[in-house]
Amino acid sequence: MATACALTLVLALLVTCTGSPSRTAAEPTGQSLSPAARTQAQADEDCTAPEKQTLPPADADGPTIEAIRNRQGEKRKLIVGVDLSSYRWGYRDPNSGESGTLEGFDIDLVHRIAEDILGDPNAVQFKAIPTDQRIPAIEDGRVDMVVRTMTINCARVRDVAFSAPYFKTGQQVLAPKSSPIKGYDETLAHQEICTATGSTAYTQLEADKKAGRLPESADIRTTVPNQLDCLVRLQLGEVDAVVTDGALAASQAAQDPTVQLKGEAFTTEYYGVAMKKDADDLVRRVNRILVDFREDTADGWQASYTEWLSATLGDDPSRSEPPAPEYLRRS
Fold first, then answer.
1. Three-state SS for 125?
2. pLDDT one digit per residue (tens) for the chain, 331 residues
3. SS3 call for 146
């Protein structure tokens, strides 16, 4: 098991070469909002179901899909932002030799999308994208999409387009088994909590602290570019707890038997495939692929869950399968 912990540490250090852990100071309070900021704040407040703000499924090609298909030679691949170090989601099998095969639940979905659009499940260029770079990578055109345990939320739907949900999860606390922390409650008082920069976990903690739902003495300033860095800092004793998606935390607990999930999930969230805001044809196509993925009982969602996630999340997938998708009503 020491090997597994060491592997976690090495992977995290490799993936985070683009940035270093930081402590983000609290933002000043009491400042008035501009009219535009007030309008956006009201829009965010009125947003209650971001997972339903996606387009209906369709097979038709469009400019985004055509641009992908018109790439020349070896560049004719789907370019996808993924994680290379999230156990069972997107990670390199250390036992796969020099090839370092990338595998996991998210990776299965990427292959499914590539097969539908390009006729070859392996016509993919994977790019390792840190947690805090997922949206910039899409906006800058570095990737066609991000499939990286990315939660659909109101703030993000302003910047990128999401598919229908493909997985249900919620925020949970991860801490050492010996820790007095019992969950997302008063036992987090005077504890240092690690989250990824730009993650829904940090947003939730910040909001709960301001609202008094999180102990005032809980220290949430420790943020890192990549979520797995939090596990490394927990292993090194630099923080007391990690808050992240329960689906990810369960996989991390499977890697390190000295840590465990504490308490139940305190939010309900959904993962989606993120794409450019104006890539309507690609969004519709991915939504159609997701319908097929969920209906395919032999090689689809259920089979992927069983292979990758049942060992950490349990044999019953019903807690993780999202509800039937709902779509925007527009042409």
1. strand
2. 444 444 444 444 343 333 334 443 333 334 444 444 444 454 455 688 999 999 999 999 999 999 999 998 778 999 999 999 899 999 987 776 666 789 999 999 999 999 999 999 999 999 999 999 999 999 999 999 999 999 999 999 999 999 999 999 999 999 999 999 999 999 999 999 999 999 999 999 999 999 999 999 999 999 999 888 999 999 999 999 999 999 999 999 988 999 999 999 999 999 999 999 999 999 999 999 999 999 999 999 999 999 999 999 999 999 999 999 999 975 4
3. strand
Six token digits for residue 67: 């641009």
> Residue 53 — φ and ψ, nearest 5°?
-95, 60
Task: Output phi, psi for 18, to 5 deg.
Answer: -85, -5
Structure token pair of residue 127: 């790019």
Rounded distance, CA 126 to CA 102, Å? Answer: 9
Burial annotation 181-216 (CB, 10 A radius, 16+ → b, else e): bebbeebbeebbbbbbbbbbbbbbbbebbeeeebbe
For the CA atoms of the chain, what is the radius of gyration?
20
Calpha distance 169→74 (Å, rounded): 37
pTM metric for this prediction: 0.85
The CA distance from 279 to 155, in Å, is 18
CA dihedral 121, 122, 123, 129 (to 10 degrees): 110
Tally Cβ neighbours within 10 Å of residue 57: 19
Do the beta carbons of residue 170 and residue 261 sit within 8 Å?
Answer: no
Place of tokens 């060992």: 311
